[in-house]
Amino acid sequence: MAGVIRSDGVGVGSGGVVRTRPEVPEGVVRIRPEVVVLCRPDPRNRRCLRELGAGMEEEGVPFRVEDATEDGTELEVGDGADDGTDHGVGHGADDGAGHGTGGGAVELAFAAAQASHLDVGVGVDATGNVCVHHAKLPPDAPALSGTASDARVMGHNAARLVVGVPFKGTPAPLDEWKEGP
Amino acid sequence: MSLVVGVDIGNSTTEACAADVGADGEVTYLSAALGRTTGVKGTTANVPGVVEVVARALAAAGRDPADVQAVLVNEATPVISGLAMETITETVITESTMIGHNPDTPGGVGLGVGTTVAFAGLPDCAPGDAVICVADADVDFEDVAAGINAAIARGVRVTGAVVQADDATLIANRLREPVPVVDEVTLVHRVPLGMPAAVEVAEPGRTIRTLSNSYGIATVFGLDPEQTRMIAPVARALVGNRSAVVVRTPSGDVTGRRIPAGALTLIGERAKRSVEMDAGALEIMETWRRVRPLVDADGEPGTHVGGMLARVRGTMAELTAMPRDAVRIQDVLAVDTFVPQRVTGGLAGEFALENAVALAAMVRTSKGPMELLAARLREALGTDVLIGGVEADMALLGALTTPGTARPMAILDLGGGSTDAAVADAGVAEGAQVRSVHLAGAGDLVTSLIDSELGLDSTDLAEEIKKFPLAKVESFFHIRMEDGTVRFFDEALPAEAFARVVVLTDAGMRPIRTGHGVERIRQVRRSAKQRVFVTNALRALEQVAPGGNIRQLGFVVVLGGAALDFEIPDMIAEAVSEFGIVSGTGNVRGCEGPRNAVATGLVAGHASARAAHAEVRCG
């Protein structure tokens, strides 16, 4: 699992870019420019996260994945060294059914966008709905939203939102899906 | 005082001008109106359009239709133009040999040469073999990477990969020794296996160096001079790409061939000359210059140009109900262009820019059934309908109401179908000559050039690109216009417009779904306008100017729909500035802009005729 939802391979890829993986000393706050993915810790989201990550990695945009608590905010991150390695899977399985109000993909995505230095966040709710948000957009008007099956494309598009490249594919109209079920 | 309405029936718009005319020829202009022309100019189908425009002009003036003494219409000679475009080069690849598309994110960097092998066949390769791995979209990127890593560990030299899905970077990131990977190859199953191939990916921001060079390909595959000649079109087609794949198949043959486009015969009043279409627009126009004035044009039967002119003739005959052989082509404008064409035999939907020649032809038909039209208008309007003077004379009279103009003056009417020019010598009122010409090629040709050169396949979108400026959506809240200025929005822009080039139409933004940047679209738009309008403006002025010398003209007034364009008047002003004459967009009656010239001229002509008549009576 490790290495899948990690964006550290990025920058090696399409050449030229220097491998940016400085060893950050314990306790130093990282301000790496990354897309933040906030995800309901649910084992069913494993595949979805992998696809999201693959989409962003292919576009060459760094990202990190964080767990979301029930009220839709991110967990205390403060995890310095091991951020974005092993979250999102394997624990919190009991959480799936009863996430609280405000814990939908849109809210998660917006919170993630606020936390991202690139102003772009992705939210994944317990049922695998995916939403891409931008920090400067109104909270209830995400850039894009879709389901788990769109995860790869959503990953591409979250990255393209950062890079400034037209979106891939034709995303579902926004009014078709607003909130997690 | 009597109330009259001048009506100009144009190819696409009908314009009216209402005015009070005193017995001494004094004119008080009241209002103007504009509407679409119904039917072909100069036919009875125009009646509904005329009736509507007259009613609108009178309503705007606040006058009762019953008070109208006369409606003045111009003598409308239908001038119809036709367009055709043919490619004169073609790139054909038999036995699929190249993948030259430009995926957004190829993986790895460098050049890899080896034999193509399906991903499933990788374990069967012997250590030491140089291979290029070909994987379809069913195989996950991790499996592809793992497979290649395993093969390399066994000593197989995997030098590159060609994959179907969009995951080249993902694969390259997972390889222990990164190799160039080209992705998004839609027809990956048609890549021939067991053949020597080369994969090249350039660093971000650079373009490939080896496979876009004929000798590079010759070096990679060890080709002899004859084979190099055959492969040259491949190299040409790959220029400017960030990634490419070339597979060498034994019977593979790529040819760039010139299509026998045929010869165009231009028949002038005194001479007759033929010119090969594939000589290009410059040569064709040079031939035209030698034979003009043109009486007719013909294309070699059974060739492209023959077909082109036959189509134009057919359309004209249909529109004017004339027999086909009575249609005389009286002007042609040839324009060099290029058309993105799908490469036959490509594997990823590659396009090559093929040279083409666009030809606009203009036919001046016999005089339309004006008397019949006037009679029908008389019935429909219940007033007297007078057929006024020749269109060009009337346009000149109207244009002269532009403040700051004087004779000798020329007008340039840039319309949709034709470019017209007329010149009035000093003292035209005393019966001096008015010379006029109608030339093929105008707005419609510009639209079709934009459409084909950008590969839009949408006339509507091309029309909008022609008419409105461009911008790039840079974030959800701001756009950058083509001149570099930035505009902000309160509401977030739609996701489908994000990062795209948009046309800023009257009705809002319209995203252009092509990979072209702002600069490229702008350049195509401006060069299309240059090639058609500037060429034709000079060609037209040259023909009407006294002694063919544009310097003899005092003033040039630009009229017609294109005069309202946001850049065409500037282009023309720039082009004629070297002749030291005054040129600018007309402002009819000091308030109508480049519109309403003929309608205004009809009223002015009517008024001066009345005054002359009154004088005769008095004297």
Automatic annotation (TrEMBL), chain A:
Residues 68-83 have a biased composition (Acidic residues). Signal peptide: none annotated. SUPFAM superfamilies: B12-dependent dehydatase associated subunit (SSF52968). Residues 84-97 have a biased composition (Basic and acidic residues). Pfam families: Dehydratase_MU. It comes from the Bacteria. InterPro entries: B12-dep_deHydtase_bsu, Dehydtase/Dehydtase_re. Residues 1-20, 67-100 are annotated as: Disordered. This is PduH protein. It comes from Planotetraspora phitsanulokensis.
From TrEMBL, chain B:
InterPro entries: ATPase_NBD, DDR_dom, DDR_swiveling, DDRA, DDRA_swiveling_dom_sf, NA-bd_OB-fold. It comes from the Bacteria. Residues 93-254 form the DD-reactivating factor swiveling domain. Residues 275-604 form the Diol dehydratase reactivase ATPase-like domain. SUPFAM superfamilies: Actin-like ATPase domain, Swiveling domain of dehydratase reactivase alpha subunit. This is Diol dehydratase reactivase subunit alpha. It comes from Planotetraspora phitsanulokensis. The lineage of its organism: Bacteria, Bacillati, Actinomycetota, Actinomycetes, Streptosporangiales.
